[in-house]
Automatic annotation (TrEMBL):
Belongs to the LysR transcriptional regulatory family. Signal peptide: none annotated. InterPro entries: LysR_HTH_N, LysR_subst-bd, WH-like_DNA-bd_sf, WH_DNA-bd_sf. GO terms for molecular function: DNA binding; DNA-binding transcription factor activity. This is LysR family transcriptional regulator. GO terms for cellular component: protein-DNA complex. Keywords: DNA-binding, Transcription, Transcription regulation. It holds the Pfam family HTH_1.
């Protein structure tokens, strides 16, 4: 049994598609098929059922998958230790972060991750939500801190970090800061500042329009810091996720009838073919206390 055979089987187990598994493995499909057949002969049992274009793991295939994954991970760990010790190399990962996620929400985790993985180097790339999946699948980033991740793609592994409500942000000295909540009537009379990149933007506009309330922004910007600073100085109010304030002097209050929330998550490509450092980072995300 060779390590290449194990890697080929794991790629096939991840995709259940001989063509895609061969592409991941960097070999032709006939070569992959022969390697799986030799592995089955060596193990004395069938690993994959082939039903036309559909494939599925047998009971034996399911049982050995986790064992093979452990072997592949151990091999990558040995190689990483060798490279780090002999050559002093660092493992570099490029992570996207959607620009509406406040830095404080992830910097604590990043410090924890760098402490746990001393040979890791991270490159952070600000992106917009609408390109996060494209950049991930295209290999432009290794992982992504995103909002409201799209579900149903078996090529993507998603770890939900936390949820946060959408609230109304105002200056701490604003008269409505003394209220437990803000009514739609009160909101309609306030000068409104527009966070153009806000994921909730169209849903809030539709919600207000259905109640014959039209908010005409006095200021629009993609710059989170600019809009929030203007709010803190009393220029107007804006809708803001509850944990996403990046300037001081803000008070956040719920708005009656507006009940929206977003999920902040970490996404990577799924499967055993992802770099060991990325899989280790994903485990740290799962284990981190995001509360």
């Amino acid at each position: 049994m060779e390590l290449n055979q194990i890697r080929y089987f794991l790629n096939l187990a991840d995709t259940l598609n001989f063509t895609e598994a061969a592409m991941r493995s960097g070999i032709s499909q006939p070569t992959l098929t022969r390697a799986i057949q030799r592995l089955e002969q060596e193990l004395g049992g069938t690993l994959v059922y082939r039903d036309g274009k559909d494939s599925r793991l047998t009971a034996l295939g399911r049982e050995i998958r986790s064992e093979f994954a452990a072997i592949a991970e151990s091999e990558q760990r040995v190689r990483a230790i060798s490279l780090n010790r002999v050559h002093g190399r660092r493992e570099t990962l490029t992570l996207g972060i959607v620009n509406t996620i406040a830095p404080a929400l992830v910097t604590g985790f990043l410090q924890h991750a760098l402490n746990q993985m001393p040979m890791l180097e991270l490159v952070l790339r600000p992106i917009t939500r609408d390109v996060s999946l494209e950049y991930l699948l295209g290999g432009q980033i290794d992982g992504c801190f995103c909002t409201d991740p799209v579900a149903g793609n078996n090529k993507i592994a998603t770890v939900e970090m936390f949820r946060e409500r959408l609230l109304l942000a105002m200056a701490q000295r604003h008269i409505l800061a003394n209220h437990a909540s803000v009514t739609l009537a009160e909101l309609s009379e306030l000068p409104y500042l527009d966070r153009i990149q806000c994921e909730f933007r169209s849903r809030v506009q539709d919600h207000l329009r259905e109640r014959t309330i039209i908010m005409i922004p006095r200021l629009r910007s993609e710059r989170e810091d600019l809009i929030q600073q203007a709010v803190a100085e009393g220029t107007g109010v804006c809708m803001l996720p509850e944990r996403s304030a990046i300037v001081g002097g803000l008070a956040l209050r719920p708005v009656d009838t507006i009940d929206l929330a977003r999920v902040v998550a970490f996404q990577t490509i799924s499967g055993s073919g992802t770099p060991l450092a990325l899989r280790q980072l994903r485990v740290l995300v799962e284990q981190f206390s995001w509360a």
